[in-house]
Amino acid sequence: MEYQIDPTIMPVGVVGLGLMGCSITACLLMAGHPVIAVAPVAVDLQHAAKRITGHLSRSAEEGLTTKTPATCLQQLSITEDYAQLANCVLVIECTLENLVIKKKVYEKIEAAISEDALLTSNTSAIPISILQGQVKHPERFFGLHWAEPSHTTRFLEVICGDKSDITKGEYLYAISHYWGKEPTLVRKDIRGFITNRLMYAMYREAFYLVENGYATVEDVDRACRNNAGYWMTLVGVFRWMDLTGVQAYHTVMKDLFPTLNNTTEVPPLIDELVKSGARGVANAKGFYDYTPEEAKMWEETFAAFSYEIRKLALKYPVDVVKKKVAENNAH
Ligand SMILES: NC(=O)c1ccc[n+]([C@@H]2O[C@H](COP(=O)([O-])OP(=O)(O)OC[C@H]3O[C@@H](n4cnc5c(N)ncnc54)[C@H](O)[C@@H]3O)[C@@H](O)[C@H]2O)c1
Question: Is 7-186 in CATH node 3.40.50.720?
Answer without folding.
Answer: yes
